[in-house]
Amino acid sequence: PAGVAAGGAALPADLARIVGAIRSGAVTADGLAQRLALKVPEILEKLVMLELRGSVVRGPAGRYAVAGRS
């Protein structure tokens, strides 16, 4: 589910919201910022947190995906 980190721990609501948006198809930092009405630096900070938790991975061209999903 969107609110669960890779290790099974619940994510804070703001991070879960980003994971949900990535699952919906907004896969770049710019796309996420636009979809979630946040500033790009704010999105990037949260994406780093999600990467460190193992919840998302950054792929080619800065596109993000939920970890463990293709």
Order of helices and strands: HHHEE
Measured by DSSP, the beta-strand proportion falls in 5-15%
Spatial sequence of strands, sheet with the most strands = 1-2
N- and C-termini, Cα separation? 15 Å
How would a textbook summarize the main sheet? Answer: 2 strands, antiparallel
Q: What integer value in Å does the Rg equal? A: 11 Å
Low-confidence stretches: none
The general outline is globular
Mind explaining what this structure looks like?
By secondary structure, the protein is mainly alpha-helical. Strand 1 (56-58) and strand 2 form a beta hairpin. Helices cover 49% and strands 9% of the residues. The model has no long low-confidence stretch (mean pLDDT 88). Strands 1-2 form a two-stranded antiparallel sheet.
Keywords summarizing the entry:
two-stranded antiparallel ribbon; globular; 70 residues; mainly alpha; single chain
